[in-house]
Every structure is written in C-alpha cells, then in structure tokens.
Amino acid sequence: MRRCCAVWKAYDTTDSHPIGCFGMKLVGCVAGPFQTNCWMVINSETASVTVIDPGYGAAKIVDDYCQEQQLTVGEILLTHGHIDHMRDAGVLATTHGCTVSIHPDDAFMLTDPSGGVSSQAMALHDVGSMVKVPADSLQQLTHEQQITIGEEQFTVRHAPGHSPGSVLLVGEEICFSGDVLFKGSIGRTDLPGSDWSAMEQTLANQVLTLPDNLMILPGHGPTTKMQAERLGNPYLRKYQS
Ligand SMILES: [Zn+2]
Ligand SMILES: [Zn+2]
Predict the structure, then answer these.
(1) pTM (2 decimals)?
(2) Where is the Metallo-beta-lactamase domain (predicted)?
(3) Ligand 2 centroid to 219 CA: how many Å?
C-alpha cells in the first residue's frame, strides 16, 4: 500500500493539521472547536473516500482534498452522534449524495443535537446554520456488522457509555475508537445520554478484548496502541483480572 505522508502537508494550516500516517491510505485532520479528529480512508480502486466523523469545518477540508486528489466522497461513518463529530455530515451528504451511517441509538442526535451535548457546545458549533443529514441518506451501524472501509474489512462493536450509540470500528490494524477510548483516558460520562455503568461494561467487554497490536485512532488527541492503553491507561487497569 502507498503511504500517504505527502498529502499531510496540505493540511498543515492553523485550522487543521495532520495527526498521523499509516500503512493504509488514511488521511486525518483536526476540525472544530473541540479539535475533533476527522479521518478519510481512501479506496483507490473506486477513487472514493470514506469520511469518519466530519466535525465543524471538516467538509471544506474533505472537499478540498478530494478535488485535489480527484476522489469522490463515497460514504460517511459516525462513531457516535455528538455535534463535534457529525456537524458537517449533513452538508457533505447533501453535496455528494452519499449515505451517513450511525448506530440507531445515537441517530436521534442528528435531528436533535441537544440530546447529547450542552447548549454551549451547540452554540460553539453554530447549530443554527447546520445542514441536517437528509433522512433518506441514513443507514445503520449495528453490533458485529461487517463493513468495508477503504479496502479493509472492519467489524462494528457497539460500545455505549459515553453516548448510547457509540461504536468502535475495528479492523485488522487499526480501530476508530471515537470518544470511547483515548490515549491515557476514556470518554466522559457526564453528558446527556451518558451512562457510567454501560461504559464499565463497554470497557470490560468491548475495549479490553481488542488485540494488543491494534493502532487506536481516537476522536480527539493523539493515536496510541492498544497494548500501551492496556498497560498504562488508568481507566482500563481496574477491569483487568
Ligand atoms: Zn462525544
Ligand atoms: Zn468528541
């Protein structure tokens, strides 16, 4: 597989910057007031990209990148329904006529973002001017569903706690962990719809069962390895036997 270092430099601006480079055709940028990681996974056979978690401002970055690289936006996947991860999903879906997939337990946030975040977060993401995801573009991500992202196979793991419909997208080499697992931390559980006991179940049954060699690509902050989190993440230690 071609490495993608060359394209990172295009995003080294004040508004967005590269956060990693991997063997697969994967481009990441940071968008919006909460510095949310947006990922583009490229399928070179179809010249299309899967966009994961397009936050506020990500649509322009994705559009510019796709124009430059002569790619189309094939689909959008959301790790969960919080505004900082889905703010630009509607405008991308409308512009490109592509589907938006989310776990059904978080789908309500696409029409009512206040169901998952504070009013301050809504204001920071300028919800008033947000293009909503068209109802007919919605698709579901469900537990243990097999999906193709780029040219790789992934399994969906339902991972509630931070939000009711959070998912992990687990591939052979990488895992898009949304706001479930971060480097050295986990997602907060004090938001509307959060559930600490569900998070405990998720950590024990869905996170700690991930293989050590997985690269973790979280919804915020730097990437990490599952092994490093198993050993050093204080939130994971207590669940290990
Ligand atoms: Zn979140
Ligand atoms: Zn987030």
Answers:
(1) 0.91
(2) 35-220
(3) 6
Ligand index nearest the alpha carbon of residue 163: 1
* pLDDT band of 240, cuts 50, 70, 90: low
Instruction: Kindly identify the ligand whose nearest atom is closest to the C-alpha of 167.
Output: 1
Indicate the Cα dihedral angle 29, 35, 37, 40, nearest 10°: -40
Q: For the chain, what are the domain ranges? A: 5-236
Q: Give the residue carrying structure tokens 């007919």.
A: 136
5-236 is classed CATH 3.60.15.10: yes
Helix or strand (DSSP H, E) at 119: helix 119-124
Q: In angstroms, what is the span from residue 46 Cα to ligand 1's centroid?
A: 31
Q: Are 80 and 106 in contact (CB under 8 A)?
A: yes
> What's the 177 CA to ligand 2 centre distance in angstroms?
11
Percent of the residues in the chain that have a pLDDT greater than 90, as a whole number: 78
Q: Which of 21, 101, 15, 96 is nearest to 58 (CA)?
A: 15
Q: Which ligand is nearest to the CA of 117?
A: 1
In this model, does residue 220 exceed pLDDT 90?
yes
Distance 162 CA to ligand 1 centre (A): 7
Using CA atoms in the order 112, 117, 118, 121, what is the torsion angle rounded to 10 degrees? -90
- The rounded mean pLDDT for the chain is 89
